[in-house]
Structure formats: C-alpha cells, structure tokens
Amino acid sequence: MPTLFEGLRPFRRTQALRDVRAGIVLAAMNIPQVLGYTRIAGMPVVTGLYTLLAPLSAFAVAGSSRYLVVSADSATAAILAGGLASMAPAASAKYVVLAAWVALLTAGFLLLGRLFKLGFVADFLSQTVLVGFLTGVGFQVGIAVLGETIGLPVYSRRTVMQFIEICRGLPSIHLPTLLVSISVLVVAAGLKRFAPKAPGPLVAVVGATAASALWHFSAHGVATIGALTGGLPHVALHWLPWGEILALIPIAGSCAVMIVTQSAATARVYAARHAQKLDENQDLIGLSAANAAAALTGTFVVNGSPTQTAMVESMGGQSQLAQLTTACVVAAVLLFLVGPLAFLPQCVLGALVLLVAYHLIDVRGMLSIRRESPGEFAVALVTALAVIGAGVETGILLAMVLSLLRVVRHSYRPHTGVLIPDANHTWKMVPPSSSAHTEPGLVLYRFGASLFYANAYRFADEVLSVVGPSPSPVRWVIVDAEAIVNVDYTASRVVMTLQNHLAQAGVELGFARLSSSTKADFERHHLTETIGSSRIFERLHDSLDAYAEFQSAI
To answer: Which domains, ranges and CATH numbers included, belong to the chain?
Structure first.
C-alpha cells in the first residue's frame, strides 16, 4: 500500500536545521542550472524555476528516497527537445503545451511501471551504454548551445549540421557575447575548482545580470532573456488532438526509461551509503506524481538528478525537508525577484549549459572501458555516435537494445569447458575438445548458463565435439549443471535428441549439481525419465564414484 512522506520520516528536530540549510544552498546552486536546462529543452526560461516548485514538492511527498532530488535534467531535456523539434518552434505556446503532455504521458508510463512493478527495468541499461549515452548527450547539448555562447545564429536542428553551421560562421563571431561567455565560464569553473562549496553558477548569473543592467549589454548586441512573467504557475492543461498525443508517446516512453534508470541508480547509491530502506516502486509513484505536477504547472519532464542529490548530501541534508526548503526559496524568487532576470544575457545560460555538457562527456570513463573491455567500449562508442548523429531518442532506444543484446550474447555464448583435476586436486577448466578428458573415458563438461532455445544447439554441438574421435574413447559425459538454473521446452527436446545420439554411440549422458529449479524443469519436461535418475548426481564426486564402479564392473 503506497504511503506518503516516507522521505521525511522519521522527522528529527536536530537534523531539521541542517536540512533547511542544505535546501537553501541547493536553491542557490540549482536555480542557474535549471535556467540553463531550459535552453536544452527549448522551453521558456521561467519554466526552469517551475521544475523546482510543484514537481520537486510532489516527489518529496510521494517518494521513498530521503535524498533523491527531482527537477530538470539534461538527459530528459535533450530527449524532449529532440522529439519536439519538428512539431513546433522552441519556446512557443504550442511547444509548451506539447511539453506538458509529454510530462503527463511520462507520468502515466511511470505509474504503469509501478502497477506492474517494473522498477527492475533500470537494470537492463548497463553502465557501459549509459556512459556512452550521456557522453553523446554531452556533445549534443554542448553543440546545441555553442552558437548562442559565441553570438552566432544556428538554424539546423541536427547536431552534425549545427556543428557545420558554427564552423562556417566562425569569422562572424560576436566578440562582446564571446567575452561575456568566457567570463562566466572562468568564474563558474574557477569557483568550482578553488572554492567547491561556493555557488559558482549563482555568482556568475548574479554578476552577469548586474553587469548587463549597469552597462546595457543589450545596446552592444548581447541578447538578454527579456521580461519574465512573475508569480506562481497556473494549474492548467490544454487539450491536444489525438493524433498529436499519439505522436508524443515514443518521446514520453524514452523519457520514462531514462527517468527510471537514472533515478533508481542514484537513489540506490545514497540509500546504501546511509543504510536507508528504499522502496523503488514507491519512488516510481513519486516520480509519476512529480511529472504530473510538471504537466499541470506548465513545465517540462523532471528526473532524479545525481549531481543535485550529491549536492544536498554534501551539505548535510538527510531528508526531503531540504527539497521542500528549496521549493519555498524558488517560490519567493518567482514572487519577488523575477524582474532583474530580464537583464540576464542569453549567452550566460548557454555557457552554464556548456559546463554541464563538459561534465557529461565522460572521457575518463570511456577510456577505462576501452582498457578493460574493448568490446564494451565499441558498444558505448556506437551509443554515443547514435545520440550525436540520430538524436537522443534514438540513442536511448539503441542503448536499451544493445544492453539486452549483451545479456543475450552472454547467455548464448557462455563460458564452457572440460573440468580436469590439477596437481593440487582442484578443478581447472580447459576448452572443450576431443582430446580434453577428465579421466580416460570420462568427460566432466561445464556449461555456464541456463539452457534455452538459442544456446541449446550450441550445447549439443560442444558435447558431441568432446566425444569425437580420440585416442581414448569416451564412455561417459557428465554435465556440470551448477550454472544451468533453467531449461526451456526447446532445450529439453535438444537434450533428448542428444541423449539418443550418444546412446547409439555407446556413450552415457548424465548431469550433476542440479539446482532445485532445474530439477523441477527436468521433471516437467520428462528429462529425468529420459536421462535416468541413476545418471543425475548431487555432487561431481558422486559421478566420479559411479564411473569408477562402472569401470570396475566391465
């Protein structure tokens, strides 16, 4: 039964002050970030502040994690922009309505995920493809705002074409805009390096806004964001034709997958670190409520943020009270401090997005994967290139497919071999071949995965290969089935055929170390009857003893 306020309980007065302080710092650090994320999402600037209001509060009430911060995020913002780019002009009224419906549909997907307990879906996106995916997102969003930071208009909506446009327009860089962008990057990056606890982005935004108002940047050709509508967001949702709603479903599905993956991974880390009991399915309700709140308050999809969650924890926050404090600070900004933001140069937000993009591009992670697993590096690289070349939505779908294919590949081509005792009387495994025997006439063959329709014939071929022509004819083949935890119908028929072929060749087939689930499969598919209970052993040594008795009886 879903419960509320799990992220606030148990409430401790001694901790409350630290939570409030962490919430104020989170607001100071996060307000500039979410304003920057609106550039990625293609949304009006003020909607970034909206993500820190109702959506953040909704998760604080309905979620389970005490630490997870839910707000605008670069990955889901990029998915949104990639999907809506061809449906309406960025930041237009129609675009905002479409974005609200994407958030609502995403909330629906997340709620379905909770009803069917699909929190485990997050496990099917491997760390490898996530590194590649986020690296691709980093390049995509960085290139998307690069023109804005140097004062060049960019008209293409494709990343590669945007980069080509920027390269062609380099002689026409607007120098004042470039200088403002460089100043912001130096201040934000410098403070992060030398004073990591200082709100670098906030200092850069406040400084740039004050300088713009004082020296009239707009008169020198530096574009500003202009007047913003203050006050709290209105609760509303405009209807769309069914055809347009259906077109938004793939976008919302991609967002939901990314939200489940990133939020679950982040929440798990901090729950484990602080010995917190985490209910991932309850978090799906919280994330669904957050995105429904986003839809009804005119903003865009929200996600669990690893960086913002780390920020709260580093400041001593230990409950969702910190996030609720952030929402109160943002509400005050919307009511009383929106006016000065009109002087904020657009290139400042672009520069802040560049910093986000820089941290998303995980070169160190990619190189680490390449050193340890070249095959997985290829998967990560393909995912990154797909995001850059075909878009974020395609990238996340490809990431899921590649992750699943890796799982299937490991099951299709598991580790196999013949067990041979070494000089210390411990088992070592050698590649299966006609010359690899455990003892003269006996082969202990290990298969390292469940038997199913895709790998059953491979299993049969390898067993037949070890009983092929050899100096010492094989009389018994015992399969070490410790890793075989499941046998499907197709595999059972392949095993029956294999047993028949071996019997005709005068070879006994047996199995050892069956798990209880595999024994049940053997019974259901009549394999116990086919193999014979006398050839199914509890331990490998039992099979060795039985073979010794067989030899002595000859």
So the answer is: 13-407 (no CATH), 416-553 (3.30.750.24)
